Amino acid sequence: MAAPDLTPVKVWDLPIRLFHWSLVSLIVLQWATAEDDVAYNMTWHMYGGYAILCLIAFRLLWGIVGSHHARFHTFIYSPKTTVSYFKTLFKREEGHYLGHNPLGAYSVFALLLLVFIQAVTGLFADDEIFTTGPFASWVSGDTSELMTKLHHLNFDILMIFVGLHLAAIAFYAVFKRDNLARAMVTGKKWVKEEVTSPNHAPLWLALLIFVVASSAVLALVLWLPTTR
Length: 228
Prior knowledge:
By secondary structure, this protein is mainly alpha-helical. The protein has a single domain (15-191, 201-227), classed as Fumarate Reductase Cytochrome B subunit. The protein contains 7 helices and 2 strands, in the order E-H-H-H-H-H-H-E-H. It has a two-stranded antiparallel ribbon. Helix 2 (39-65) packs across helix 4. The protein is globular and about 60 Å long. The model has no long low-confidence stretch (mean pLDDT 89).
């Protein structure tokens, strides 16, 4: 329960929340299907990779034209600001950041980069058993082998990052009394000062961008390889 002196402010729009939890679900799917070297599992693994590319493409566009706190320019912080925030990390009082704080911002960019690398290297990978990425034949065998190794290595790095991310969420919930997971479900943060909620971009725009981004990605990974 929130303290009585706190006020709810709507921060995260529905598209951002759907993106976040869809990506979480797909990462779990990718981990589960990669654990067993079974043909049908790897088929789902490839479909999951395509879905992740669709999500990433949407998020990149939504980070430009989406709602206020979804836009990348609102959480790009200087090293000086980040260091200043880090010095207050172990104080119970939460900072004045309504959207992503500096460490959270770096976490978002790191996650997007790692997931993007994972999805792209998978397009060129070849496990030489069940699955060949749609662009594996476009590169040499050595390059495909390198991409396969990077795909496995980057996944290990991604899992470490996910573990750190979960630890950070627990730290903020217990020590800083800032329930980040709840905010990503409800879209609301509870703050002491009275703050006006920023206007959110219309849902029709998010749907249009998702359709355009997904169509472009699927055309790239499903149609383009067949034209060669």
